[in-house]
């Protein structure tokens, strides 16, 4: 796949709530916390969901205590389940399919997440052999989105995750090694490995952290203002309340909209092209 196509695929993974049957408001379990003011069991509509599948407090979610709703992003899985998997037949008009639709939604969400990672990796300048493997992987994942509900429910997603993980790690290591080679001083890839590190509330303001591996790291409430995070691997990192004000994330790898939605930032934060600046960030 050429760069233009895969970039379009990655940037096209956005939610269109007008084509979804409020699946994030029904299928998911909600536990009362600082992110939600209510308890809501899975497969049950939120009390704020209207008959047209729109949220009656959408413009006031944060003020009403529903911070978690403004963070969540299905990467477009909701409209695919609603319009493709179930052919536009809603769970309200077809209650016999409701349970199955709600079960399929998180599965489709995981598939879309894997598609986003594979497509993003293909936008990088990586070895052709690795690019070919990622292209085949991406095509296979895209085909999964066309499966019927029962087929989706029978998938072993871990098999797909393991296969993709190996390719993403190879792509990340290649990009990071090339970046490290351009940095002053003799450094090795392992010197930049902070995977699954616990850096909660760590003071990192103004640091040059280029090419660091933060895979699965806990960066909750870390002060990363004005930090250089180019060529950093952020896959699976917990970025809740991480302060990215003035930070350069322009070429950070495998950063998702949901991660950014949970973080803090400002107009000076530089984001990758596929990430939208959250409306709740301070301007």
Automatic annotation (TrEMBL):
Q: According to the lineage, what is the superkingdom? A: Bacteria
Name of the protein: Pentapeptide repeat-containing protein
Q: Which Pfam families match?
A: Pentapeptide
- Recite the lineage of the species: Bacteria, Bacillati, Bacillota, Bacilli, Bacillales
What InterPro entries does UniProt report for this protein, alphabetically?
5peptide_repeat
Output the Gene3D superfamilies linked to this UniProt entry. E3 ubiquitin-protein ligase SopA (2.160.20.80)
Q: Which SUPFAM superfamilies match?
A: Pentapeptide repeat-like
